[in-house]
């Protein structure tokens, strides 16, 4: 008989309901009793996932928000043990990008016990704090430097729990009151070094955000490529052009064949630039906040981000 482990964030889930649904799913599919491992404030999933691997389980289920999923995936990267998602929390960004069902515990567990495995890429970020300290972290959706990281830092947790992603809108209103300009040097795929002034740089393994916002329209979770967007508006008009690009062109026109025909192939927005590559090195003239999949990792002076192709197996529904 097969056995699963589940890494549960008790703050983001209803443990009693989940235990009942889990027992029913085990009975339906003939699996052994699942190894139940709860995250803590001190350990958001690293030690729990290592314990699951040591026990030789057949799959690890992440039951929590994007932070729990990222932490579990970081430990599973490069192993033969697949990750199953039981979406909870505000974002559920990887689940959204994989078109998985949200808010359906029974369906998520059926997928975990009787789904198919899909290999996806993992982003790997080496973060340097300017004091000879280097931290290597994985991410599944996006890494961000600039306004998006400051927005997360400014988000009210209580408002986020009550209003969901709307809390980010409130936070970004506060962040935009400052100039927030980054002064960077970057090198893409070992090429020449460029200088850059921008408000934010986002490096994506996936393209969609909350509220069905399509930020990186060409991004695919299994193409072995990082998609990068640089936002550098000079004024309110620049922000307006970015909004039109994201919400109208990416969010509406690109989603239909008719809309794609209406788009101009040569239409570029000066305030918003796209790059592609397998590795990018960013160096800032001052320490800046960085986020990975919505988790803050402090201030960094430089970061090297690369893609690890097909490094994680994720359980998805069978065709």
TrEMBL record:
A GO term, aspect molecular function: methylglyoxal synthase activity
GO CC annotations, alphabetized: cytosol
Keyword Transferase: yes
Species this protein is from: Leifsonia shinshuensis
Protein name per the record: Diacylglycerol kinase family enzyme
Gene3D superfamilies per record: 2.60.200.40, Probable inorganic polyphosphate/atp-NAD kinase, domain 1
Residue stretches making up the DAGKc domain: 1-129
One record GO biological process: methylglyoxal biosynthetic process
Domain of life: Bacteria
Keywords, comma-separated and alphabetical: Kinase, Transferase
InterPro entries linked: ATP-NAD_kinase_N, Diacylglycerol_kinase_cat_dom, Methylgl_synth, NAD/diacylglycerol_kinase_sf, YegS/DAGK_C
Tagged with keyword Kinase: yes
């Amino acid at each position: 008989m097969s056995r699963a482990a589940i890494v549960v964030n008790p703050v983001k889930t209803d443990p009693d309901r989940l235990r009942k649904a889990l027992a029913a799913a085990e009975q339906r599919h003939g699996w052994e009793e699942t190894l139940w491992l709860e995250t803590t404030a001190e350990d958001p999933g690293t030690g729990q996932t290592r314990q699951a691997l040591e026990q030789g389980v057949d799959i690890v289920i992440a039951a929590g928000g994007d932070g729990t999923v990222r932490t579990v995936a970081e430990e599973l990267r490069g192993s033969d043990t697949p990750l199953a998602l039981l979406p909870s929390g505000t974002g559920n960004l990887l689940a959204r990008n994989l078109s998985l069902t949200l808010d359906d515990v029974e369906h998520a567990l059926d997928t975990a016990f009787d789904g198919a495995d899909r290999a996806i890429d993992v982003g790997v970020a080496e973060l340097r704090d300017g004091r000879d300290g280097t931290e290597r972290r994985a991410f599944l959706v996006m890494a961000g430097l600039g306004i998006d990281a400051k927005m997360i830092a400014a988000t009210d947790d209580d408002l986020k729990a009550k209003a969901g992603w709307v809390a980010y809108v409130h936070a970004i209103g506060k962040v935009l009151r400052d100039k927030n300009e980054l002064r960077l040097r970057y090198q893409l795929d070992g090429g020449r070094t460029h200088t850059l002034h921008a408000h934010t740089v986002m490096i994506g393994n996936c393209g969609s955000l909350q509220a069905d916002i399509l930020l990186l329209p060409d991004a695919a979770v299994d193409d072995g490529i990082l998609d990068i967007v640089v936002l550098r508006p000079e004024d309110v008009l620049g922000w307006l052009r970015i909004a039109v690009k994201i919400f109208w062109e990416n969010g509406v026109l690109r989603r239909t064949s008719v809309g794609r025909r209406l788009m101009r192939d040569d239409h570029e927005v000066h305030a918003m630039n796209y790059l592609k590559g397998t590795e990018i090195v960013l160096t800032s003239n001052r320490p800046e906040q960085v986020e990975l999949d919505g988790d803050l990792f402090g201030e960094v002076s430089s970061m090297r981000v690369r893609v690890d192709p097909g490094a994680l197996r994720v359980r998805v529904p069978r065709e």
